[in-house]
Amino acid sequence: MRRSVSNTLKGSAGNLVEWYDVYVYSVFAIYFESQFFSSEDKNSTLYVWAIFAATFLMRPIGAWYFGRFADRYGRRLALTVSVTIMAACSFVIALTPTAATIGIGASIVLLVARLVQGFATGGEYGTSATYMSEAAIPGRRGFLSSFHYVTLVGGHVLAQLTLLIMLTFLDVPQVSEWGWRVAFGIGGVAAIVVFWLRRSMDESLGAESIEAAKSGGARASGSLYELVVHQWRPLLLCFLITAGGTVAFYTYSVTGPKMIQSAFAGGDVITGTVLNLIVLTLLMVLQPLGGWLSDIVGRKSLLVFFGVGGVLYTWFLISALPQQDDWLKAFVILAIGFVILTGYTSINAVVKAELFPTHVRALGVGLGYALANSAFGGTAPLLYQAALSTDHVTMFVIYATAIIAISLFVYVFFLKNKGQNWLDDASMGERAKASR
After folding, report:
1. Which phi and psi angles does 98 have, rounded to 5°?
2. Cα–Cα distance for residue pair 164/166, rounded to 1 Å
3. pLDDT recorded at residue 427
4. Amino acid 128: pLDDT
């Protein structure tokens, strides 16, 4: 248990920093928008969120590369490489000259840096979810692996906290002029620290598997052919489990805080930032509770709770939240959404890890997640912004609710609440390989 907790904390630290680097973009977007695009361009906000969405196109590629790497050469090394890439890109963004200096080159550098970060993030999710699920002990996997999303949400919390501190000591023009650069720089420095932490983690992939891969004797390990041909059912299941969860996550936790940020954008900019910080901290704290509960009642029960809640609540959240000017009402509306969302986020890592045998687990978890995340998650803020600008928000609500409903169908009819799984019985995977 002690080693499991130690490895969980070290794995979580890296996950925290990488997701800070992801979310510092969305949190500071309205402040650095004018630095990369002309203030006279009415579509500049759409361009900023288009870049946010475009980075998700790289996630499947990153998931394939790092998943294959992790299944062959170990989870620890793959995680160390991914955090190094994230650090480098954060420094590049922090140091990029503005559009006033290099013109369109500024937005091109931003796009390229974010695409590379999307590549690294694609590898981070699958590998870290796999590592933390494998490092957790049986009977406590739900609770310990829930820290994967504690730190994922924690990255968003840290980004919001960074903004709050800046707005406390700086005015809005100063944050727009240079404060956002400091925010990206912090992510780069923190990633360097995590690089050293990750080097001391225990490796969760067996030494025999790593040696076999190095000698060329484990061709099935991390093989895309092996995954698509022999493990296509769990891959499809992973995709469908993720679809509704990821569209809800980005709608609730990214678009939701943006609604609050816009509602309090006048003289209450501090109030809006504090409110977002508090409610996102609530989401973070809820994750271990959901994971602990899943160890008792089963994973399926929580996923069905999320699916039913998401189908019934999404319309109300999207329609009511932008209308709020009272901080307490806004908090309650978003907090209820986060309670529902926890049914998915707290256990999604272990649920997916349980679907795959060891030799393709990082690849399967990462690719299944990344494909759904690219199609439905990363595009959600962009689609909402486009729907808002064209007065078609109802269409976005129907779209998001329909995706959650499809995942709910999968949760109800294709998942078991408890029972034998690949994660707890590694010999299942060995027998499957031997039979071929």
Report:
1. -80, 170
2. 5
3. 43
4. 83
